[in-house]
Amino acid sequence: LRRIKASGLKLQLCTNETQATRENFVRKLRAMGFDISVAEVTAPAPAACHLLRERGLRPHLLVHDGLIPEFAEIDKTNPNCVVLGDAAENFTYANLNEAFRLLIGMEKPVLISLGKGRYYKETDGLKLDVGAYMKALEYACDIQAEVVGKPAKRFFESALAELGVPPEQAIMIGDDIVSDVGGAQQCGMRALQVRTGKYRPSDENHPEVKPDAYVNNLAEAVDIILQQL
Amino acid sequence: LRRIKASGLKLQLCTNETQATRENFVRKLRAMGFDISVAEVTAPAPAACHLLRERGLRPHLLVHDGLIPEFAEIDKTNPNCVVLGDAAENFTYANLNEAFRLLIGMEKPVLISLGKGRYYKETDGLKLDVGAYMKALEYACDIQAEVVGKPAKRFFESALAELGVPPEQAIMIGDDIVSDVGGAQQCGMRALQVRTGKYRPSDENHPEVKPDAYVNNLAEAVDIILQQL
């Protein structure tokens, strides 16, 4: 991060984090020593708020308690859509039925999902991610959710808008072959896959997505980018 | 029921009930005045037990408490598959994560679903049915569940086996265009749709399933069947 910023390049962090507000997310990163500000973070919840305002939608929220402040300014009375995030402990039978009933009662049900991850790992084991619950509601209502967050094209476009940079002048660095690399490339950006984190050797034979290059870690990605300036 | 039995015809009740054992299901029907015995009921849980035994599978159960006695005779130690029913209040975040972890930890995950209904109505409102949770686990594990229960062909075949009757000598009567009518026809049976219960006028334009005839109610179905003897 420090080397990128020192070189004069602009930086935007694209995360699918939906358990905390950007403020709390940035606080955590700063505590770990990363020099990052809220304005440098693109996250699904603010992207969803943008979309809700644009279309006059009033959401019923099925999200993590930690995310609720992101929707503070949004009118939530008499909901005409459901916003689904990684609600974790809030994914109760009662809450899922409530979200379902609201959707099935709408003339044209609108389900906005803050990502479509299948699962993730926490210290106490693997957990079902928002994508699994999205599929449950999609099937029950016979609808397609609108996904905000990586790999949605709109999401990368809003990150580029924040940077004020056209896609051909931007490079995505990520560990997820589909969400990070595939999503950015669909948007006209180049993309590097780091061989850390979610990376699996089988990614290198992915049937649909091929990164512009592989790097062994973030430092190597920065080396390559700075060499080409 | 009385008229069918008096005529000498055999009868088998095919239900997707997975919240109670057949014993309790029959008790409820008898209390309502229906002359029916446990042997006359084909239900998903016993069909699943048959399949588990056949393939040497030891299930982890995510089902309704009321259904657990149906699996009393089945070895459930060191599970190598997951059996999913309409678990209702047992569809907790913790239980879903547990079922998911077992599946994703298997070399070849086996998910057996006791039906694939989208939702159903109870006195306090609509509820997500087993199919929605099946889709969540399918997506998270990137697998296809094996569905036991209507409209699975195997399910109708086992009902016919109970009756000792070939499909061309059997008639299905049901209110669900896909689960009842479509499932039975795929098995070589004829099928009547009753215009009660789940029936919707739009069923008559169903793109894939066309009943052999419509009847306004069960009594009319019996009239037609008895006339043709």
- The radius of gyration over CA of chain A amounts to 18 Å
- CATH class of the largest domain in chain A, please? Alpha Beta
What gross morphology of chain A would you assign? globular
Order of strands across the main sheet of chain A: 3-4-5-8
Distance between the termini of chain A: 16 Å
**Biggest interchain interface, per-side counts:** A-B, 28 and 28 residues
Multimeric state of these chains?
A: homodimer
**Major sheet of chain A: size, sense and barrel closure?**
4 strands, parallel
CATH fold label of the largest domain in chain A: Rossmann fold
Structural class from helices and strands of chain A?
alpha/beta
Number of E-state strands of chain A: 11
Unreliable segments of 5+ consecutive residues of chain A: none
Provide the domain count of chain A: 2
Number of helices of chain A: 8
Note the run of SSEs of chain A as H and E: HEHEHEEHEEEHEHEHEEH
CATH superfamily of the largest domain in chain A: HAD superfamily/HAD-like
What percentage of amino acids of chain A are in beta strands?
Answer: 15-25%
Q: What is the overall pLDDT average of chain A?
A: 95
CATH architecture assignment name of the largest domain in chain A = 3-Layer(aba) Sandwich
Helix content of chain A: 25-40%
Subcellular location (chains A, B): Cytoplasm; Nucleus
Family (chains A, B): Belongs to the HAD-like hydrolase superfamily.
EC number (chains A, B): 3.6.1.1
Function (chains A, B): Phosphatase that hydrolyzes imidodiphosphate, 3-phosphohistidine and 6-phospholysine. Has broad substrate specificity and can also hydrolyze inorganic diphosphate, but with lower efficiency.
